[in-house]
């Protein structure tokens, strides 16, 4: 009888100190990622397009896993580049407060926050408002947006490499042309001139 009582007390104590499911979710936090409020949306230079595409993919994965749109947006805002994270965090807060999705996604385009908006968030917001009106999931649209962003980044990198090849050909020509004249043409001209003048 005493053993049964001790076992019951131990089980009750274990259940009492066992962490809640929210504690396990907090453990899956991204280490070293600054809060969205500490990220600078006005820093110089464009964001990495591949990081933006990865944020779109993460958003799609969260939605396919069954998370609400506001929770998924909050998670993505923690790891997305700043120009995307700041308006996304603002939208997530409005969705958590129960705002209409159409209004929540349009709030980042308001006049009091023009510096926070970029073209990638604008494209996602248009798609999210359309999905909210139709009542459909935006996961597939986010995946297509990620692919489009990656393709655009690849095309831009290829164009930059081609421009660099054209730009570098000028200095290389200026370096190699004098060497070619001095080492290739001048000795031939001197040799021919010596032969002609010696024959005369």
UniProtKB/TrEMBL annotation:
UniProt membrane topology term: Multi-pass membrane protein
Any Pfam family matching the protein: T2SSF
Sorted UniProt keywords: Cell membrane, Membrane, Transmembrane, Transmembrane helix
InterPro entries the record matches: T2SS_GspF_dom (IPR018076)
Cell compartment(s), UniProt: Cell membrane
Sequence intervals crossing the membrane: 176-197
Residues annotated as domain Type II secretion system protein GspF: 56-182
Signal peptide: none
Gene Ontology terms: cellular component: plasma membrane
Protein name: Type II secretion system protein GspF domain-containing protein
